[in-house]
Design brief:
It is built from 7 helices and 10 strands. By secondary structure, it is α/β, with parallel strands linked by helices. It has one domain: Rossmann fold (3-Layer(aba) Sandwich). Strands 1-10-9-6-2-3-5 form a 7-stranded parallel β-sheet. A 3-stranded antiparallel β-sheet has the order 4-8-7. The radius of gyration is 16 Å and the shape is globular. It binds 6-phosphogluconic acid (6PG). The site of 6-phosphogluconic acid (6PG) has 15 residues, from helix 2.
């Protein structure tokens, strides 16, 4: 596997610490943060909204690492998840760049290519060892090396909706990447990542700075019954 593991008692709290560090050491005036979907991400953003000083948000630009191809106000949308979890601070950020499946992936690919690297990409880990919307056996795993963003979907039907997602190259282009993993349900996937299982999409992500924030339950074998 690539990157380093940070064993966390409380994953959302450690996530906030990583974001705080990345924000205060950012090279430019703004902080470009790409958000994830999922329940772990929701808890991370609730903590982030409560923890970051209010003025910081006016220097933060929000992007997404992946999105479901549903309306932005749909309950399944990662945009809606972020808006709900961040609460009032969502309206104070410097800019918001939602992924819009209706225009295809090219505009988002161009958007990212036309600006400095994202400062931090936040990812989750699915029980099937997907991350972002890079699903096992899906076309995005073999996207052209030059592509940062592509359309995708789960050929196994486990994860709903057509998607838009960062590719491995899109993830690797970020200044830093943080993956949050919590709960025994992720133990098998995390074990496959650590083993470098080539069939585990998340095992193939890499970036200059890559941190896996993992709790004990996801890292250790389940306690014997
Ligand atoms: C998505 C997410 C996805 C998520 C993982 C973990 O759009 O579904 O981006 O990659 O991060 O599935 O989700 P949980 O934290 O809910 O297990």
């Amino acid at each position: 596997m690539n990157g380093e593991i940070l064993l966390a008692e409380d994953v959302p709290s450690s996530f906030v610490d990583v974001v705080r560090e990345a924000f205060t050491t950012r090279p430019g005036p703004v902080f470009a943060l790409a958000l994830s979907g999922g329940d772990t991400a929701r808890r991370c953003y609730e903590h982030l909204a409560a923890a970051l000083p209010a003025p910081w948000w006016t220097d933060i630009e929000l992007f997404w690492g992946d999105e479901r191809c549903v309306p932005l106000d749909d309950a399944d949308s990662n945009h809606a998840l972020a808006r709900e979890a961040l609460g009032p601070v969502f309206a104070t950020v410097r800019s918001v760049h939602p992924m819009d499946c209706s225009v295809g992936a090219d505009p988002y690919d161009t958007l990212l290519r036309s600006r400095p690297a994202l400062d931090l990409v936040h990812l989750g880990l699915g029980p099937d060892a997907h991350t972002a919307s890079l699903f096992p056996g899906s076309p995005a795993l073999h996207a052209p090396a030059a592509r940062l963003v592509v359309d995708n979907e789960d050929p196994h039907g486990t994860n709903p909706h057509r998607r838009m997602t960062l590719t491995y190259a899109g993830i690797a282009r970020a200044r830093s990447v943080v993956v949050t993993v919590e709960g025994a349900a992720k133990h098998e996937a995390m074990t496959r990542v650590i083993a470098g299982d080539p069939t585990a999409p998340a095992a193939r992500i890499d970036a200059d700075s890559l941190v896996w924030i993992v709790d004990r339950h996801a890292l250790d074998a389940p306690s014997p019954r």
